[in-house]
Design a protein that fits this description.
The protein is an alpha+beta fold and 581 residues long. It is built from 25 helices and ten strands. Strand 9 and strand 10 form a beta hairpin. The model has no long low-confidence stretch (mean pLDDT 95).
Amino acid sequence: MASPDSFVPVAELADVRESGRELVSADGRAIALFAHEGEVRAVDNACPHMGFPLVEGTVDEGVLTCHWHHARFELTCGDTFDPWADDVLTYPVDVRDGTVYVDPHPEPDDPPEVHWSDRLEDGLEQNLRLVVAKSVIGLADAGVDATKPLETGIRFGCRYRRQGWGPGLTILTAMANVLPDLDPVDRKRALYHGLLEVGGDVSNEPPQFEQDALGATATDFDRLQSWFRENVEVRDPNGAERVLRTAIDAGYEDDELAQLLATAATDHRYVQTGHVLDFVNKACEALDHIGWDYADVVLPSLVRGLTSADRAEESAEWRRPIDLAGLLDDTFDELHRFVEFGARKTWSRPDGMLDSLLGDDPDAIVDTLVEAIRDGATPEQLADVVAFAAGTRVAQFATSNEFSDWNTVHHTFTYANAVHQLTKRTDAVELYRGVFDAAINVYLDRFLNTPPAPLPDVNPDADPDDALDTLSAAFDAEGHVADAGRAAAHFLDAGGDTATLRRELGAALLSEDAGFHTYQALEAGFTQAASRPPEEARTLLVGVARYLAAHSPTRREREQTFTIAARLQRGESVHETVDSE
């Protein structure tokens, strides 16, 4: 209960009764007073939805209606009838000797972190863009770690989408991965974008109903893996989920659970244009962020994708004019023998290997990889060089191709990145198959580099500030793909800081209404560039810049919503903005 000393005089009772409403100020707060049904009520004057002055609203039968978007509020407690609007803050009122007093600093019903966590759930459940934006900003401003809204989004997306893990959860995890690369405000934007995509994916979808684990939790891992693969093979999601939950309940380690999933995802060639294995990797990365205690929530969301995926060996391009799937089947029959031959050997990438992987002879590509394995190359080492080959295809994509073919080279790159990241998590021999799949797809993409777009000439005399200005301008007009790649390269050539370039590229992405693949392109490029020598990092970041420029500009509606949310959180009057046009 408010102390009498906390109240301040704000208006004469007679004036409020005569006008029915008054706008007053107390300790810098704009407060709307209403005389209604014999009582005086006080609410914050700014409508919590879009900031419109509530003193200009209508009160009828105890309901205050804002005249801008018709949000409705119960006048005594401020609760809204419309979840998209949020509750309005009410102030305690006391009338003494004909004067109205108000406590301008009432205790909130909930602390900010609780309030905004609850509102984030509302925003996700009803797919409310502005609510999600305000919740992300409110949580960050309250000092809540990014892991909290990330956890909320991941749990929500896994629980309420029967098809399971999809683009929204992938985008959210990708944005969580690049948070350290971004400015503080863009970190809010990144979470907002990812959570918005999760809400969109779940909207109007049936929820996921869980299968129970088998009682056989004492079953050894090899048998569980065999059962899981068999259920995926025959496209039985229920059986596969029960086996996976059994492995989780049995307490198998994180790397073993990753192996279980990755093995099934590579039993067939390049399934679902690489998305399935990429989803496996992203689900594991999501658990790295929020904790593997959530494995039973997250990992089963992958099962339907695994069991329903298209398999590349069923497609014509993997069978004709060259039977690429058959070529790999023959190779995989000997895979364990090659690995045994290379045991205890130390391998380093030979000169010319990248050129071989980018060549036009699939037999030579397979031979190159087999020779590397026989010489002791680990799955991680091979995945590293194949991922760079795939990234080079993106950096040198010829814009004379159809626009949709950006997705073709992109899919190969994100798949190769997923293989590479999973090889860091588990050394399962089966992941060599993912390396070969990625390499064959690099081969299939060769025509999209015919001729290859040249990598920008090295220009150490470039002005880094001018390069950044050119880069920014390239994202504001269609078709400036070459300008963007050249600007990114020359910024680095002139000694520009890689971290600065990553921040600029991240900011460019988050200003757009980006599509699924564009988020993936940035995150995979950043991930692959992070630990590479400068020349290779340069190529990969050129690829990121070119891909973003090819897909910019957009209408930027999401940014408008985020800007409105940020202004509302700062207490600005959005409705008073004057259009500059």
